Amino acid sequence: MDAQSLRQGDSGDDVRELQRALMQHGFNPGMIDGEYGQGIVAAIIAFQSSERLLPDGLAGPRTMFALRLVDSNTLPSPIAGVTVEVVSRMFPATPICNIKANLPPLLSSLLTNKVADKPIILMALATLRAEVECFEPVSEGQSRYNTSPSGHPFDLYDNRRDLGSAILERLFLALLAILSLFSALSSSRAAAAETSAALERLCGENPDLVQATREMKGFVPATAVTNALPAEGDARIVYRTRLDSANPQRFHIFEPNRAAQPIVVSAETTTSAVNDNFPSNESVLLHVRLPGDSHVWPLFYRRDFLVVECAAGQFRSWAMIQAYVSSPSVAYLWLPVSVTVFLLSTWAVSRSRKAILKVSTDGKLAEKYPSVFSAKQFKPIDYINPIQLTADAFNQASVQKFQVLMFSFIVGSLVLSLVLRTGTLTDLSGTLVALLGISGIGAAVSQVTYTSKTRLSFENWAWLQANRVLEEQAERGPQWKDLVLTNREFDVYKLQTIVFSVAVAVALVLDGAAHLATFEVPPTMLQILGLSQVVFVGGILVRPPATEDLDKALTKLRDAAKTYSEAAARNTDVDETGKLVPGTQSPVTVAVHARRQYEELVGSVIPMIESTLEVEVNEAALREAPMNGGAFLRPPVENCAV
């Protein structure tokens, strides 16, 4: 093309070539008539927005270069327009002789240093207007602030990083990096400019197609559905045409300069609009398998494709597509990301278990209500053990938390893999959302039900801990056996939940990331998963009220201990109903009945604690619990010497 820039109102062959280029890139400028009208302006603005250029509707050098109409995107130098007359209007109070004398050296210096673009020229002139409006050199003048006593003039400015030298150095290095990047991009665009010739060679056996590509006949818009097309995966391209049931079409896709060519796997009518240019039921969705490259890097690279529509053995339409293609290797980045998230999660759990209770626990981790066990500290193997992330309030593995953890990691990894491959966040099927909802809600409900059903009241739990009744218990953490056992009993409700959850998880993995939007679980399977959650919660509710009975017994034991301590403090005793007897007793009979009643309750509570909580009771500590003033209560009167 001869013209370096075009604007509204221009006409001729250059405008006609511009219209064809816009049509080839999928931006319809209207009739190809060689007139730069509103249709071209609208198409240019849309194209400039897609290429992140200034959307001004003008076909300048950068827009022309992006359309492959010119070989360079270099803007015309504005130096020619910077004349003495123009600058004198910007410096009305400056003698014109100074401008004539000093403007040429200024412009020459800008050209020599390759900073002669319009913004830099304007900034240079603005600085001169503000600092030296006379437009002639002015010496700063030597002083003790810029020149040392025995140094050369202005030597105090040398190597002064605090004056900006270090910043300028960093900016220069950054500029070099940016220029290198632009150079690489320019090389890739130059390589893409050879596409048209390669397409002619590729389609040389079809004169109709060659003529159509040259004259833009039969051209239709087409684009990639996702930001990147996955190589060796389900690449989807939308093509602006309708399927003809009376005269079925065949679609072919070609890629220049490649031995292995893409394959169109299937074609279907779009059921939803991809964007404004591709409305539903008026476009065709092509499922394409793109051959991958042997190299691993770069993970994303730009490729050109020619899509051809044929019917009855005759050429009908064609489209040109430029799209980024992702390497199959990029999909495996989900693995280090998932492993990192998992290790950070286990590390956070390990840190929470290192909250040491000082002095009283002698280095053991503090028990946390409602658990009666100390949390087990992490061993090296525990950092890679997923069961550690499923601990409930009792330091046991929760099957519901395991279910949520499993589905979250599987779905999250698949979504991440697909995003890395296509650059687009995929939709999730309604079945998958229901599956995650069932597991999440089931985990929350079962956690609340199990905790409320199997925990002691806070007062009784604190009383046992304060009196060290359960102090000698071993540390405990979640174990795999907790997923199928409850109180040393095989739990079929847990087994049912695990079996169906694992079955669905395996199906989800085998179906792959590409089918997350269409993944379906049979309705009966969803019902079974929901019922398994209901049955599990129901199983908790119908269990014998052992913990509730123990809680009542401990409350009664605490009351007896309180009565025993009070009777001993008042030198009295209690009657058969446990009420304090008025007055005082002889030293031999003080609190005899109160202690006997407390001992009887201790004897019945010990087996209840060991059976319900599955812990061994420190019987001596339990019998000595009712203390007064730090002294243990006296032994039974039957053992005292009279």
In short:
By secondary structure, this protein is an alpha+beta fold. About 45% of the residues lie in helices and about 10% in strands. The strands form three sheets. The chain has a four-stranded antiparallel sheet with strand order 1-3-6-5, with no helix packed on it.
Descriptive report:
Keywords: Membrane, Transmembrane, Transmembrane helix. Residues 11-66 form the Peptidoglycan binding-like domain. InterPro entries: Peptidoglycan-bd-like, PGBD-like_sf, PGBDSf. α10 packs antiparallel against α11. This protein has helices at residues 13-24, 38-50, 61-66, 84-90, 96-112, 118-131, 165-192, 195-202, 207-215, 334-352, 399-422, 430-454, 458-466, 492-511, 523-541, 546-569, 592-613, 619-623, and strands at residues 222-224, 228-230, 235-239, 249-254, 263-269, 284-289, 300-311, 314-326, 485-486, 489-490. The chain has 642 residues and is α+β, with helices and mostly antiparallel strands. Mean pLDDT is 74; it is low at 164-205, 356-360 and 628-642. The protein has a four-stranded antiparallel β-sheet with strand order 1-3-6-5, with no helix packed on it. The chain has four domains: 13-66, no CATH class; 195-326, Immunoglobulin-like, CATH 2.60.40; 332-541, no CATH class; 546-639, no CATH class. It is elongated.
Overview features:
642 residues, alpha+beta, Immunoglobulin-like, 4-stranded antiparallel beta sheet, 4-stranded mixed beta sheet, 44% helix, elongated, disordered C terminus
Total number of distinct structural domains: 4
How would you spell out the order of helices and strands?
HHHHHHHHHEEEEEEEEHHHHEEHHHHH
Helical fraction equals: 40-55%
Strands across the major sheet, in which order?
1-3-6-5
β-strand amount: 5-15%
Number of helices, where a helix is a run of at least 4 consecutive DSSP H or I residues: 18
What's the overall average pLDDT, rounded? Answer: 74
Provide the structure class.
alpha+beta
Shape: elongated
Low-confidence spans: 164-205, 356-360, 628-642
* Strands, total number: 10
CA gyration radius, whole angstroms? 41 Å
How does the major sheet shape up? 4 strands, antiparallel
| N-to-C span | 125 Å
